[in-house]
């Protein structure tokens, strides 16, 4: 080899500024066309239909009800997660399985960027499919005349969760390029989702609420009807999931073959940012607590979301009493009015009888973290508050039962309305209250024999014989026994019901206040 | 010894060659482990036994992973009362079956197809072994989690059906991952659909009305595998 | 005759990979030449009983591979090296060869010695206990050759066996072929003309699924003389001449 004069350096033609993003877009397009994710979408669609859509159709056409299971409890995430993670792991392991790592590393474009393109295509398919499937499901709901407000925040949580599963799965595949990477990622996701659903599922506060399918961290029955969906927890969950996503894709850029030193430092920063974001979200979640309108995280809470959604109630009249519901429940106005009519007719003209019936969000039990079914009569003039959100409406069913018949629905409403009227509160009430309640219900058309079952379903039945007497709510003042319902209660009720209508009304008019205050004993009934 | 030796090569001591070969045979010889020797005797084919012990889903790592998943389920059951083992075991077994055999997981598939030990026999033996191992692990986990006997054994038939779906899909598509996906999806659909209908997530395991469908699915899956792995007869 | 093919065809959808090939062969080394896509691999796969023919008749080692029993018997006496050899990265060389020896139904007692012999024959004795993932491409190919010859096959099918081998190893491989050819039928599919010339007693040239030449290497050389065909060596010129003639005949018919 002879020495020669060095050839003059050839000036490099700079790449056009537009060529870089164009090449990147073209690379992304190639990855989108050759991605494996589309092949798993039919399976996911089938699963979504069985698990997310079909169960929701047993619920009334109200957004909060229909989406409680699939969005609020994260079942769309459960349907997508394992499969997205598995396919993403398959895509991430592609370089290793096909032995093209050297080829990729030796290319001009940094290996991390190339991997990001592959992951981005995978995530676009997965998140796109999620949004399309959710969109179709919501479209069907809209076509069926669903009412209320859609839980957009929770849709966003699901989308970010799908992206997180794709990133985590991709990272598993990239670092473990084996043919076992896909099932490993899929089953790992199943275990993660299982633990997410079960950890702290009865907690009404604490870090466990941030887990993506924690069943307690969803919205309440008045959400989207009386109150807006609180964005506190969705924001925190999205922070956690976005943090996981960032950390996973950042990790890909850390190995020495990923690119230049500067690029790897960038990847380190991205990873750190993801970890910090996730950690912050968990920290915020430790301050979370379940409230009447949903999960409140003080640092993220906007007081404006505590205000009720302004709405003009829809009303009808029965037994001289207007019955007004939130406009979301317009389709059920006739049923509710018809259901309450017999009870309102019994109460009409009596002291303390409701001058108006209004749907309310209900009484929130902070210990249970849920709304109670109990109706209330309060104010001047008295207004009967009916928390319809806690009832199964006619024609709908829970996940396990047959569709609710109107007669059963009506019985429940009548029982609770009369229960509130006699002043029994949340418990079974005094024996005198129980007797008056029984007589009024019998007058409304509910035979004595049917009442124990209805009261039991309504959660206000007296405890069975031998059980300790109820204390607290329902307990009357000193000197009056509060004991289990007995033959004596129904005997007194029989006697009251047997009175001529005029005599009965006269007695009630004279003694109802004492009954409602719990001062009357069973012996003082006619 | 460098280069390629051939017997009778001039200049080489034939006796030394023979001695070296005998020594090398002893040094390089792999001693089959007891399970392989036992399998060889049972199956009456050392080749089949070797193919069995090299099943990807019977390798130690996979078995440990399976045990970990089932143990997690058992612990979750003890903690929450929800019987997870009957729900997990069929899915885990389906994945193991999909990874038992086939071009999706065997890099030397082309070569394996030309072997005297037929690939169908290998598939059958591996599938049975994987199924049996998963059944044993699942039963142990069920017993450890203290669930009722009906649940402890009730998932064996659903597991058979899920495995049949996974194996059929893996065989038809020549992809183990498709088999895993199909088996997992089918089982999840069965669990979630029956759970939504009855309110009990164990309905997929306990509902006697599902026995016949499971049997049909298992038989169909087996038939698909038999047809897909048949070797077309020659034309002469 | 170890190989008797009569009008063998194989279709993949609308593509006819092998179009009416007839061939007979006894002990010796038989070279199968042809450009990429000529159908060599498909023909070899059919002879390896991996791929069933679409039509035609085939008898290997005096048996019809269509039935299970005879096919199994053929496979016990068969050695096959596929073009794309997959391997198990965690296996050692010895374990890899032993695995396929067992799958060929070799008696277990004979396997260790047969493995040692095969591994030494391909010059991998010093790497016998090395894991396959640590081997170079050429060594992997030699491990593949070792598994093909471990059972002293009567029919040895090798598809692109010298890919990745260095020149010295190719010389030694040709010697191995000649040695095997003395008692077995060895069919080598390759597009490296010089391999065929050095080791083969008979040559067939395939193009578009058909055999367009069958004879000795000397006959192939003769076909190229005076034609001005392209090629740096006589065999290459013969190869080019035969292909050109075959393609012009096809064009004329079309």
What is the H/E order of chain A?
A: HHHHHHHHHHHEEEEHEEEEEHHHHH
The unreliable regions of chain B are none
Counting DSSP H or I runs of 4 or more residues, the number of helices of chain A is 17
Give the mean pLDDT of chain B: 83
The most extensive interface between chains reads: B-C, 41 and 63 residues
Largest sheet of chain B: none
Total E-strand runs of chain B: 0
- Radius of gyration of chain B, rounded? 23 Å
Query: What integer value in Å does the Rg of chain A equal?
Result: 31 Å
Structural shape of chain A: elongated
Assembly form of the protein: heterotrimer
Main sheet: strands, sense, barrel of chain A: 5 strands, mixed
Low-confidence stretches of chain A: 1-5, 469-484
The proportion of strand residues of chain A reads 5-15%
Strand order in the sheet with the most strands of chain A: 3-4-5-9-8
**Number of helical stretches of at least 4 residues of chain B:** 12
Structure characterization notes:
Chain A is α/β, with parallel strands linked by helices. Chain A has 17 helices and nine strands. A five-stranded mixed sheet of chain A has the order 3-4-5-9-8, covered by helices on one side. The N and C termini of chain A lie far apart (127 Å). By secondary structure, chain B is mainly alpha-helical. Chain B is built from twelve helices and no strands. In chain B, helix 5 packs antiparallel against helix 7, helix 5 runs parallel beside helix 9 and helix 9 packs antiparallel against helix 10. The radius of gyration of chain B is 23 Å and the shape is elongated. The model of chain B has no long low-confidence stretch (mean pLDDT 83). The longest helix of chain C is centred in the last third of the chain and has 20 residues. By secondary structure, chain C is α/β, with parallel strands linked by helices. Helix content of chain C is 40%, strand content 23%. Chains in contact: A-B, B-C.
